Amino acid sequence: MDEATNVRVASPNDIRPNPENPRLVFREKELLELESSIAANGILVPLTVYKAADGGLVILDGERRWRCSKKLGLHRVPIIVQPEPSRMQNLMMMFAIHNARTDWDPFPTAIKLRDLENLYLQTEGRTPTEGQLAQLASLSRGEVRRLKNILSLPEDYLAIITAEQERPRSEQTLTVDHLLEVTRGGRALLKQSVLDEKERDELELALIGKFQAGSLTSTVEPRLLTRMARAVEREDVDVDVVRASVDRLVHDAEFTVRDAYAATVEHAEQEHNLDMAGRRLIDNVNSLAASSSMSPGVLTTLRELRDLLDQILAG
């Protein structure tokens, strides 16, 4: 043992994974790349472990390195031994160690975040606030909100994304963000009675299929469904027009959300936005005219606007 660095060696057979690790998916291609590096250069960064009550060593950081060492048949790996944490500390350390790593999959991370929330409730007697949970997990409040939204997805959708996450990243066509956007859009249309529950399910599954097939490529395109729902709520467009376009979304493999939006509410929404902007302009002009004289530049702009409006109204 090197007293200066606290680095020692141990057999990989004496080490086991951490049950609290939110990282559950280990892709074969990525492991093979790391395995090749370790075979050529050895393990350059020691594994961080703690000694459990039964004498075994439990990984805090380095499960991929450990998996590769087992596959390569290494007899010894470098380790740094930390004191055994409580379960709460263990979860917090897992998040703190890995929170900046982009290769974590969000669904298993969300599950572990729920475990952390439940453990806090058990130990403190109250549910943590969003801010407290974010601090415990070394995450932003927005990340906490996103992870909790993932757990609200239907079970069959979570099964779809779990299967997708087993594939190499280069071959993945579907992420949890696709599913979150799709379900938000479906929920908005359901709320405005554009669809019933069965029709919403059909729409969401159709959009998931379009993402998988590549006919939908923009993660945020389903947000246009929410804008279509708002147009129905404002009575800017007839609900039957939107319903017919959504039905085509379900049954026409090449028809996109952008197509549906353009065919139904895009013009009405542009008019709505123009109306709102015009009203704000009127308020600003009245306020400015009442408080002081206007500069020559503003007056020139207003004259140009007047001439344009005269042309439109005359037409």
Account of the 3D structure:
Strands 1-5-3-4-2 form a five-stranded mixed beta sheet. The model has no long low-confidence stretch (mean pLDDT 87). The termini are far apart. 62% of the residues lie in helices and 7% in strands. The chain has 315 residues and is α/β, with parallel strands linked by helices. The protein folds into four domains: 1-84, Conserved hypothetical protein from pyrococcus furiosus pfu- 392566-001, ParB domain (Alpha-Beta Complex); 87-152, Orthogonal Bundle (Arc Repressor Mutant, subunit A); 155-264, no CATH class; 269-314, no CATH class. The chain contains 14 helices and five strands.
* Uncertain regions spanning at least 5 consecutive residues: none
Number of strands: 5
**Integer count of domains:** 4
Largest sheet: 5 strands, mixed
**What is the structural class?**
alpha/beta
Nearest-angstrom radius of gyration?
28 Å
- Fraction of residues in helix: 55-70%
Q: Report how far apart the termini are.
A: 89 Å
> Mean pLDDT across all residues, rounded?
87
| Inertia-based shape | elongated
- The DSSP helix count reads 14
Strand order of the largest sheet: 1-5-3-4-2
* Element order: H for helix, E for strand: EEHEEHEHHHHHHHHHHHH
Beta percentage is 5-15%
